[in-house]
Amino acid sequence: MTPPNTSERGSERLWRTALTPRWLAALLALVVLVAAFIVLGRWQWDRTQDILAAERSAAAEPIDLADLVDDQGSWNNADIGRTVNLQGTFTGDELLLANRELDGLAGVWIVTRFELDGGQTVAVVRGWLPDDASPSSLSRQSVNIQGVLHPDEEFYEGANATRVVTIDADALADAWGEDVIDGYVMLGGDQGDAARGVPVPVPPTVQVGDVAFPLQNFFYAIQWWVFALFAVVVYARWLYLDAKK
């Protein structure tokens, strides 16, 4: 008579243990935990890629904004920080966004609606002025300007409920009565002259130059995936030890 195979008996005990209610519940918890770790790791990995894409975009040659925007007024986040060219006309629609500091001085951002030659509208931050200054008037002639592409500002929900205080395409569209391209363009150029109402250029609030490799995000991604693997190893080890009892 052939003696029973020890490895087969061990496998049977392992499966019987794994199918008990306690270990089935542990398996379910493991699946949820591993899935969460994988999603968190993927999120950090995507953040790493977004930062690298933004650096590549910022270093790329200037491009016409119209070439980046689709018919719905949206554009790819990979183009955040890219220098864009605008051909069109400044309109009479303008907002002064309060509580904007520059070099420690209180003031406002001058945000003007710019109509592209193709008909779409984009918000342009002409620059900063102190609270007591009035912005100079603009020519309504067609111009070519250049600036840095920014995403919509993210403030607390309802920030623009009573008046526009942030640059948000939906809020600006309501204020101006025109559809507005997502985000805004921050003008560069000359130093400005606050005394004469010529807005002072504001430094871009997004990364526009070389950035270090986003090691923190990269290692966070690897860390979450290691946690997922560790959870599986711990589950398998405890199951094995329980089955041997």
Describe this structure in words.
The protein has 245 residues and is an alpha/beta fold. The protein has 2 domains: 6-53 and 213-244; 82-196. The chain has 4 helices and 6 strands; from the N terminus they run ααβββββαβα. The protein has a 5-stranded mixed barrel.
Report the mean per-residue pLDDT as an integer: 85
Number of helical runs? Answer: 4
Low-confidence stretches: none
Fraction of residues in helices? 25-40%
What is the general shape?
elongated
- Count of the domains: 2
Widest sheet: strand order? 2-3-4-6-5
Order of helices and strands: HHEEEEEHEH
The percentage of residues in β strands lies in 15-25%
Outline of the structure:
This protein has 245 residues and is α/β, with parallel strands linked by helices. Helices cover 37% and strands 20% of the residues.
